[in-house]
Amino acid sequence: MSQKLFMVSLGPGDAELLTYKALKAFKESDAICVPTKSEDKSFTKSISYTIVRDALEILGLKKEIIPVYSPMRFNHNDWINEADVILKTLQTYKKVSFVTLGDAAIYSSIYYLLDIIKEKNRVVYEGCEVIPGVTSFSAASAEVQKALCLGDEELLIKPINPRGKVKTTEILMRPKLGMSTQELGDGEFYTFENMYLKDAKITPSKIQKVKKYMTLFINFARR
Fold this sequence. Notes:
Helix content: 25-40%
Number of strands: 9
CATH superfamily of the largest domain: Tetrapyrrole methylase, N-terminal domain
Low-confidence stretches: none
Largest sheet: 5 strands, parallel
CATH class of the largest domain: Alpha Beta
């Protein structure tokens, strides 16, 4: 039985802010793994469960809901246990979604879990699809109708109470056509050109010269 894992971003709390891709993943999934902070694995206080429940009501679907105890202690053993629940669920169900609040790329446990899944089951890891979502700060900006950045302004995202030395990922946008990227310096660069268009291209390095207007560079933190 071929297995498929979706890591689904739920957005900031409103089921109507789920992406079409997220809803499509729910439609395709046989079961949905939903985190809960309750030791008895109930969903009484689970925002994630409420969003999933509302989304399934919108879709007119019923799916098997699998509780995943997630105490949010930033503990590696907790992530191992969560990954084990996901992999065990995939032994029973062909297609499974695991959900996270906000967007998977921003302070989510998803990439801790994927690192563990990669070690335990490479096939599941390589076939996994991560689905992005609306961030809390993007939704907050829309609520008050105030831009997060305009013109040449920068946007800074930082933890208020860091646990140790802070590492930085840089997102570099709005390059000029024909510009050399030498001035961007060195690092763990990826280049994204014309994302989701027919000629989209992802390069696991920094290209030397900008050829397309819709070019995005990410200099990932070294971890």
